[in-house]
Amino acid sequence: MSGGLSERLAQRAGAAAVSPREQQPAGPRRAARHADPFAAVKRRVHEALLAALGPTLYEAQLDQRDLEVQVTQTLQAVLQQDETPLTGADRFRIAQEVADEILGHGPLEPYLRDPDITEIMVNGYDQIYIERVGRLYPAEAVFADEGHLRRTIDKIVARVGRRIDESSPMVDARLPDGSRVNAVVPPVALDGSMLTIRKFATDPFTVDDLISFGTMSAPVSELLRACVQGRLNIVISGGTGSGKTTTLNVLSSFIPPDERIITIEDAAELQLRQEHVLRMESRPPNLENRGQISIRDLVRNSLRMRPDRIIVGEVRDGAALDMLQAMNTGHDGSITTIHSNSPRDSLARLETMVLMAELDLPQRAIREQLASALDLIVHQARLKDGTRRITHITEIEGMEGDVVTLQDVFTFDYRAGVDPDGRYLGNLRSTGLRPRFLDVLGDRGIKLPPGMFGTGEYGR
């Protein structure tokens, strides 16, 4: 539900919306929960609201803001007719929760509105965890039952044209704001449906934000800006939840506004601010197991669309081969992400994924493609203190025998230790080695300060 509706409900109730601020750390599953004392009132209000508005809730031509206004007004009228004695705060709470159920995602809506929460994990209808500042906390909200949770999941996936049922029990989807959604239902989920939402900021993070978070340093941002504008091919690697997509968003912001950009994703998450952006999203098969459009199909099709840049949200299969061929055939400046534990592992995973294209290519030919296509690996990790940091800026130098050679340009200084709160004190430090791609950047008219690659933390 939108912030505007929340504000109007708060004004009508004479109180400010309460954001859940759970303070206890994550622990064992709680066996007992207090029953909602207003469950019967909410059910009556919900039913009366549906009876009053009826098909209006499902009119495609009705503007979202107009729908919110109608729901708000009808809610107030229904609550006034209910004879249950309620305080102003209780009346506001009931109105808020019923509106969340009608217009939003039920008990998850307060957490979706909270800008400090970065991830919501529903382990079952009666257990929800949230991630705040990199740490997990149990949430107080719960779903009424398994059916309530399934209806919420169905609402999310149906909005983006996906489906989830016993024959297709796993799905990747997204919310309207681009937040990433994964859902798993029985029979795969043994203890009930599970839902994971990775939230994205309404206002996308900028490079200054990542510097302030400690994800990267100022000189590294200067280097990455030069590499993007100099049309180097870049892979962003890291584990799950390490912030790869956020960094990809920031690197994409460095692309000049006069270039034609094509983005390819499983679920559209990128938030590019340039004008000339064409977005494509893969599609799973339908009920007849037909109509699937894979990332690989989209990468091949993008080559016929006169791209200046191709940005693939993530490569995880044979699309790696098509991505490498695009990079090797005049589409310099492409960017993608990959799951891996280190820069060297990134190359090994890409090599494995090229083999998934089911072409009988010799190992050396694949590695030559990797060495020729890729210029830079930006590796990111989520550290034990919950922060996301870039830990390696690594150049792909070429081939020595049958081995692709790498050279670290910047690495994270773990030796700086941690502060009393367990937060890492280190930063990215130059290795003192001059990368070979500086000559390429120079040929393209992009200069970097000569002291950037000296030993130490230039420009900290």
Which key terms come to mind for this protein?
single chain, 460 residues, alpha/beta, Beta-Lactamase, Rossmann fold, 3 domains, nine-stranded mixed beta sheet, six-stranded antiparallel beta sheet, 14 helices, 15 strands, globular, disordered C terminus
Q: Secondary-structure element order, as H and E?
A: HHHHHEEEHEEEHHEHEEHEHEHHEEEEH
Full CATH superfamily name of the largest domain: P-loop containing nucleotide triphosphate hydrolases
* CATH architecture annotation name of the largest domain: 3-Layer(aba) Sandwich
- What is the overall pLDDT average? 82
Structural class: alpha/beta
What would you note in describing this structure?
It is a single chain. This protein has 460 residues and is of the alpha/beta class. The chain has three domains: 96 residues, no CATH class; 98 residues, Beta-Lactamase (2-Layer Sandwich); 247 residues, P-loop containing nucleotide triphosphate hydrolases (Rossmann fold, 3-Layer(aba) Sandwich), CATH 3.40.50.300. Helices cover 34% and strands 20% of the residues. The chain contains 14 helices and 15 strands. The strands form two sheets. The chain has a nine-stranded mixed sheet, sandwiched between helices. The chain has a six-stranded antiparallel sheet with strand order 3-2-1-6-5-4, covered by helices on one side.
Please give a quick description of this structure.
The protein is an alpha/beta fold. Helix content is 34%, strand content 20%. The longest helix has 18 residues, at 64-81.
